[in-house]
Design brief:
Alpha-Beta Plaits, 34% helix, 465 residues, alpha+beta, binds manganese (II) ion, eight-stranded mixed β-sheet, binds ligand BES, Aminopeptidase
Length: 465
């Protein structure tokens, strides 16, 4: 206990310094999806490997076909468990840039109307601020005790926001180095500002980009209009046909493998005291728009979706241009639940689109990643241990929640390496991840570090598996 107390006060005393290190990382624009930022992704990996080496990890940057991995290892005491901590140093693009009130890669601390402080920058919450909570907890342990309470391997990737294409081959190729007793991930949310959470599920994801083409060039919309097929109309019709009037996805076979949440879990969700009005109201909405007859928690945690993330085509510049574009594009993602098979969903979608193509039209498909949903056991001893530790740190007991987002690799830790995964994160619903003015609460950054210190200390005492 004495050593945990000193580690916790070390964290408190060094908060400003840890913030400085996070700022250094946040200044690196490691946008994985945009090839222009390839060098910046490597710079972020180098920075992290350097920082972990400074703490005393055996750390290295490993090349892949895409952005590099950071892999670092520190042994623990004899007999203590060994954990694999996973996070991602890549971030989402910043657009629409004009809506940011400060530069996305010039982090600042801002004061909210209620006096609380928040770190504003792209990646502040997703996932640089979150992954640094773990790194800082390790640093404080090393500073105060010269060691870590359990063995720790750290894996940071730079392609999570692009579907983690290099990670599966990397897992396979480095099984021995990566194998641990459990995987820890800090890339999810709290329940609310006073209530930490352990996420017990994540949705899967399939990304598809489609390009519909008709005439061999852009056409004058008066000279050809009425006779020529318009790819933007065809694309819009396909998109409109994705859902029926009850909000269900119409792709044949889409719901294969979709189950219902057990009553006991539903009861637990009902007890969380979730307010649909507050959830929607915070972003200017009032009426749930998804599948009829489902609660918002079901809609976002346990039901699959089809969402258009972007549509491109025709003249969108200043003024006006009378044109029938030769092509139209859409980026569409599907969130998956239960046993939906990413490959089968992709095939079903492609067949659905192809069947709707009129004469003279062609379609190209480009895959953008695919991963299944994950569901973690509620009764895992890892979860029980983390729950005790979190409850010691926060005002309220840790909640067990679902999470609508995806972390593509999370399921593979179990499938490929046989490890239980523990999803503990300190994000908040209003952090605006993937949006302008992304932020991370200072309390998340501070108490997140303290939480990991407590969890590591607790795990070091042994987990009865
Ligand atoms: N950190 C998020 C996942 C998340 C979202 C957790 C919302 C908690 C609340 C993660 O980095 C993410 O955004 N993943 C992408 C993956 C995709 C691009 C392959 C996602 O879910 O869209
Ligand atoms: Mn993330």
């Amino acid at each position: 206990m004495a050593s945990l107390d000193s580690v916790l006060s070390c964290i408190d005393l060094n908060l400003d310094r840890s913030l400085g290190r996070l700022f250094d990382l946040l200044r690196i624009p490691s946008i994985s999806t945009d090839p222009n930022y390839k060098g910046e992704c490597r710079r972020a990996a180098d920075y992290l490997a350097g920082d972990l080496a400074a703490i005393g990890f055996a750390a290295s940057v490993r090349d892949t076909n895409g952005h590099p991995m950071v892999l670092a290892r520190h042994e623990g005491p004899e007999g203590a468990p060994h954990v694999l901590f996973y996070g991602h140093y890549d971030v989402q693009p910043v657009d629409p840039i004009e809506l940011w009130t400060s530069e996305p890669f010039e982090p600042v601390v801002k004061e909210a109307p209620d006096g609380s402080k928040r770190i504003v920058a792209r990646g502040a919450a997703d996932d640089k601020g979150q992954l640094m909570t773990f790194v800082e907890a390790c640093r404080a342990f090393k500073a105060e005790t010269g060691s870590l309470p359990c063995g720790v391997t750290i894996l940071f990737e730079g392609e999570e926001e692009s579907g983690s294409p290099s990670l599966l081959p990397f897992l396979e190729a480095h099984r021995d180095e990566l194998k641990a007793d459990a995987a820890l991930v800090c890339d999810t949310n709290m329940w609310d500002r006073r209530t930490p959470a352990i996420s017990t599920g994540l949705r899967g994801l399939v990304g598809e980009e489609i390009v519909i083409k008709a005439a061999s060039r852009d056409l004058h919309s008066g000279y050809y209009g009425g006779a020529a097929a318009n790819p933007l109309h065809i694309l819009s019709k396909i998109v409109a046909d994705l859902h029926d009037e009850t909000g269900r996805v119409t792709i044949p076979g889409f719901y294969d493998g979709v189950g219902e949440v057990p009553d006991a879990v539903k009861a637990q969700w009902d007890n969380l005291g979730f307010s649909e009005q507050a959830f929607l109201g915070e972003v200017g909405l009032s009426v749930p728009a998804g599948e009829k007859g489902r609660s918002v928690l079901e809609q976002t945690w346990s039901r699959p979706t089809a969402e258009v993330n972007g549509m491109i085509g025709g003249y969108t510049g200043a003024g006006f241009k009378t044109v029938i574009a030769a092509e139209a594009r859409a980026k569409i993602s599907f969130r998956l639940v239960f046993d939906q098979d990413p490959a089968a969903i992709r095939e079903a979608f492609r067949a659905f689109v192809t069947a709707k193509l009129p004469a003279d039209c062609t379609v190209e498909f480009h895959a953008h990643g695919g991963s299944g949903a994950i569901q973690l056991p509620f009764d895992s001893p890892w979860i029980a241990a983390a729950r005790e530790a979190l409850t010691d740190e926060w005002p309220n007991e840790a909640a067990m929640i679902g999470m609508g987002g995806s972390i593509p690799i999370a399921g593979e830790f179990k499938h490929r390496l046989g490890m239980e995964t523990l999803l503990v994160g300190f994000g908040n619903g209003d952090d605006a991840i993937h949006s302008p003015n992304e932020k991370y609460e200072m309390t998340s950054f501070h108490k997140g570090q303290r939480s990991w210190a407590r969890i590591l200390d607790r795990l070091g005492k042994g987990v009865a598996v």
